[in-house]
Fold these 3 entries.
Entry 1:
Amino acid sequence: MPELDEQTQPLSTLELNSLLETSKVLVASTDVDQMLSHVLRTVMGKYVLSRAAISIIERQEESEYYTLAKYRGLASPPKRFENLSAFMEANQFEQCVPLVSQTRRIGCLLLGKKITNAPYTNSEIAFLESLAALTASALESAFTLQEMKRLNRNLDQTVQKLKTLFELTNSYTVWLSREEILKIFSRSVSGQMLIRAYIVVMIDESGKPVTELSLGIELQNLSQGQQFQYELEKAFQTQKPMNITHDDYPMLYLSGLHYIVPMRNNDKTIGLFLCGEHVTKQPFSETDLDFISLAAAQAANALEQARLFKETLEVQAMEKELQVAKEIQTALLPKTLPVISGIELAAKNIPTKQVGGDYYDIMMLDAQHLFLAIADVTGKGTPAALLMANLQASIKAYMNAFNPETFNLSKVVGKINNIIYENTPADKFITFFCAVINLQTRTMISINAGHNPPYLLKKSGAVQRLTKGGLILGVISTLMPYEVETTVLESGDVLLLFTDGVTESMNRKREEFGEERLETILKAHADKPASSLIEKIIEETARFQPMGEQHDDITLVCMKLSV
């Protein structure tokens, strides 16, 4: 049997021992850098090399490239390259031994010339290939372990982030103030993500962005600049987390802010969380920004819930106050109407809100005199009700001092006008009608201060409107006496007082109910009791208007003289 040539000799015992020792080192270590250093030392020492390197294949989407993982004897080589042949030629590498595991190509072992310039023998190449196989297998295991550790770290971080989100959910309560909610949010996020600089920006009542909280950012000079305000307004247009670049946001970027995270609720950005980089200066990953975005959405929702809760409390408090006001106002109107032989009285008041600005009064001044009044205060709701109460107090004061020998209705109305004028704003006034009826002589004196003229339907069917009087109450002080109208009442007459909430009721075509319709109803139902006549008018106005759309207070007073 012929002797084997030196080029084809199998691995020597020394080489096998070297591989065994290398295998032990590679298996015992999980540190990739330590593995690569040991492999380079082994080949460079064994073959007396001046340079050697190990490159690892990296893959990104559909492309791949090489990174220089470990090297010896090279001066400032590129850390990343795509053309392996060009890299070997530029750095005088003579041998390339692939690092191939059972599943994939991992990289390659690059060797320079021997110092002796001797070529690599087949035996040496066989050793290098065996060494490369051991190295590839060990690297595959190390990379797998690294990936598992990375996944575990990511899982731990995800669990911690979820825990933070859960804790934030439990921390937010509807009775927290906006400042408290923003502090909880910003401190939790900055602590979880190790952020060393941030600002929280909200929109103020004028619609301008205002910095509510900040950490690590000098705002004294920035916040006054127009460019800073412009960039904040521009940032409010973003709908998802994004990087802050110098080109788009130079002022924000130079101030140390690198990310914009909108605080959104119901598809609307109500605030911004702008933050700097991680304390490690590593960029935030997509999952990091997703976490901050979720926390920001939680805070935005908490702010909205707190706002709605506050509004609910305010509404409840207002409704309670209005209920009290309604009870007070109801007490100002007559609880019962006088019972008078030969005269039938009825009245109805329907405010559009809990309290209104319509007023009526019916009271006996003495055994022989009956007082009727109706009024309509400008506006609706609480302001009108307060003015109505002022009018009622003035009327009561003068009517309680009634003396038939000295009573002068014109002077009384003039004094009431002065009181209203002096104690109300210029845009508030009152239309007013009042009458005093002598029950013995059935003579009525009345004054109309700009109110809808009442109807006096005579038994004969004729209609008389009571128009004499003067200016609306509260417009100017009394310069001229109010004119008194005297009317003799007869059996069968019907007197109807009303406010413009009746005649100005509108249908869907924006047509008014009008006085003509009211007069027609009055004539058609004059034979009915006073209360039935009022109910009929209310029924017809309700039918005329769209359901639930009463736009003004409605008040009616009716007096019928028996036949």
Entry 2:
Amino acid sequence: MTHAISAKDSLLDPKDALLEPIHHSTYLIDGQLKTWKGEVAQVYSPILTAVDGVEEPVHLGSAPDLKREQGLEALTAAKKAYDHGRGAWPTASASERIAAMEKFIDCMVEQRELVVKLLMWEICKRKKDAVKEFTRTVDYLRDTVSEYKELHREGSHIHNVDGTLAQIRRGPLGVVLCLGPFNYPLNETFCVLLPAILMGNTAVFKPAKYGVLLITPLLEAFRTCFPPGVINVVFGRGRELASPIMESGDVDVLALIGNSKSSNALIGQHPKPNRVRQVLGLEAKNPAIILADADLDLAVKQCVSGAWSYNGQRCTALKVIYVHKHVRAEFLEKFAEATDRLRAGLPFADADITPLPERGKVEAMQAYVNEAVEKGAKVINAKGGETAGSIFFPAILFPVSRDTSIFKEEQFGPVCPVIEFEDLEEVMADIAASDYGQQASVFSQNPESMGTVIDQLVNQVCRVNLNSSCQRGPDALPFTGRKDSAVATLSVRAALRSFSIRTLVACSDSQKDTLEAVVAGRHSTFSSMDYLL
């Protein structure tokens, strides 16, 4: 197993090569690309290269390391653009916002090749998954525009309720602080940022620590497609930028894809946390439950995909597997064999297992394994835990004590505990006691057994997957979680609602002529009956 790369590596398509480091120096505030001349953060790839016989991380470039002053300057620009809901963007017509968004999507598509390339180099997302993330994001944004039109059409009617005339639409909430994740730095981020903007909010957006350079090709599109201050993009550390922004009390919505500790800390810094709408995608500990009558070949296939896709670095990954004692031995044998057939290597060669972007992640995965082994577990698969630089080959652990970190915590990486059960109540008790409640997967060929498990799970998690791994899509479906796994719901339809609030204009029937005059004279963008096609 290798993950070093050389200039002559035949697996590297010339189109995927980075010819020279990208030293990015600009950030976007109030419609201006400002040049930063202060400290910068060096950006390295998890991919190693041989330098004088020594393997070192590939240097990808650098990005601005902005300070508190720049963060607050971005916030001021977003506040000015929103202007308590009276700014040009929150009062713009639906057609104006749609035109801006469609222009941005077109500009974004022009940067596809470079963004995909940086997804591979910065976070080691394999090529076909990087392409999929970009394409899925573009499709999501186009679907969001279509849904926004439908939402506007729904609000084009005037209702008469007991003599009261009312027009109901959804209005923006204010200034959004958007913090994206490293594992889906494009898709997860844009699936909250752009719906928020389309609804008339303004935003300060800080990209994730890993996956920062891939945002830079899109800055010009943000600048040219949206009015000044609508989207402000700053680079740097969360504590330096996000904390003072929250402490100001001027953030109306926190949109964060990350973990509950970070979100709780940020919300706690706001002087009036009850006034902050939270749209959060957080950690999960999604279980797979394999009953005695399961199709084991199907279960193994889905568990391999569910546990190891993108090295398990997904909130929707399967992070603990419960298997009935009657099929445990057969399942483990097949699961171990299928896992060991995975290919580890570079993302350009479409390897199944790629280098881990986070510094210290290999050591963290090894620590999970060491503790579990000390408490009685064994690494079941022959290649489990093998390392090469920042690659950690998936490790299957069994039997795993409930008194281990790997059982209690979201590992967010390629280590998976397996637990044997005989009584289903053991599994349900664990799920009920868990801090997380996003999804679960159930494997069975018996409709009666499946029905029993469904009824016990639907009030513990927000999606039960039948004979398939946990997943987010299709994007039209609700994506959320209970407990510490999420706040608010995301989907093409739900995201627009999460970043808005129902607002209405009402009058008595006796004021019908006045309302008709406002509408007929096109004196209001809110009180209009324009029907978008």
Entry 3:
Amino acid sequence: MHLPPWLCPLPHAWQQQRSWRVLDVSGNCQTLWALLSLWQQAQHLAPTAPPRQLHYVLVLSDAQPLLEQAPVTWHTQLVGLLPGVQRLVLEGGALQLTLWLGDALTLLRQQSVVVDSIVLGADSQPWLVPHALKPLLRHCQRGTQWLAPPGALPAELLQRSGFRIAAPATTDGADCGLHAVFDPPWTLRKAPLPAATPGQAVVLGAGLAGSATAWSLAQRGWQVHVLGLDAVPADGASGLPAGLFCPHTSPDDCPLSRLSRAGLQALLPRLAQLPLQRGHDWDASGVLEHDCAQPSQLAWHDGPGLDWSRPASAAQCQQAGLPADAPALWHQRAGWLRPAALVSAQLRHPNIHFHGHSACSQMRHTGQHWQALDAAGQCLAEGDIAIVAAGSHSPQFLPASWRLQYLRGQVTWGPHTPEHAHALPPFPVNGSGNLVPQVPDAQGRFWVMGSTFERDVTQLPISAADQAAAHAHNLDKLAQLLPASAPVLAPAFTPGHAACQPTWGRVRLASHDRLPLVGPVPGGPDSLFALTALGARGITLSVLCGELLAARLHAEPLPLDARLAQQLGTERLGQKP
């Protein structure tokens, strides 16, 4: 597909840049398809010419035009596109497509991003209403270019709003439409935040949070030094044998529900992109949710939400050993994961350098760089920025006023044997705790059931008495989750029985509102950041949080709704020292 003449200035602007941000309010996908074609041709002819990332924000009233015209390779991500902000990671991550689905003026007022180019459509009516241009102007910085087809907008209207017309009406007989640049003669009241220049970064923590942050920065050109406590990464709670990624549901589609879907939209492309073995390291198997005490309710009865979660069928309930009419949901875009496998795969990025046996005792700012020091005062690594992503070890580097809570969790596990195979469902089940029934390993397969939530408990190793209490707790959860399975698996939860293994347990960190903390750390240089307190949702949210932090650093479009991003930001804790 060829670019129409009025769009020709766009590729010339971004083809030599590391990244470029486009806001398309044309109401259709034609510019996107033309740019994608041009991008693919340029990649084939000169792989170093296109920018590392093209950030394309497409505003649509609904997703139908995209669903009808998108390449087949995009279809796995074009499911469950509910109104709001959706992020699609395409072309191996080179194209970050952010969909704003809904009323254009409302979304333009609600979302926050400053872009390099704005593409308008042929229909000028929405922008001719008094003050209609204001929502668009808030996404401009000095130098933002506006491109519109012939006759779309009067040049005088843009000139009064601070634009200078930068292109003649015709070139070689072709009508080039409108090409304008935002360059008002007045002083702008608020300058956009500058995008960080990639350099050296230090990440404290080699778990899900640290590895996701490191990967997102490395993709943008940073050299990242990741410090871990042990010889190998995933030395803390991220060493969980296996866990679930699954959307949260609520009758009102609350912020946590929307966050969980945004987390999966970030996680699933990452799993497909990394060198991970599906079926061994992870699987999008689907997850059955069953909770007799409080049956889950959905915020939708039809539409794209059913691509995420729907009432479970009678057959699915019976496969789990439940009555055919049991109150249960089926989460299609969910599954299980070995967290340590994801951590290791992310840390294998060529721009990431893992430092094992590197216990940081102090972070020191020299005036130019951050230094991570060990107990003897020796420098372990230094960087232009530093990110605290050390899980339960994070509080020592964070303000004491932050209300953080330790949560020790223990899971019960056991080998998958022929004697109890009939008691294990063919897919994971969650609700009252969660069961991952079949995880391959070198000895065969094993199952994992848990987890406990032991508030303000940090003791490791775990005593025999605490392990016995955890086994009893997990068995009680299993009895609620899968009543028919609990009696068959009970020996594995009974200390002293040959089938009972020691629990696996670690300490997690949670915030006062049980949401992660992502953003700057106040009280010092503005180059210290936190990505921590993921609690029990590290698998689902860590990749999203890493992308959010990187997007904020680089002034990119956010991978989720701006209001949801605020609920993750460290700014919500206040600026007390």
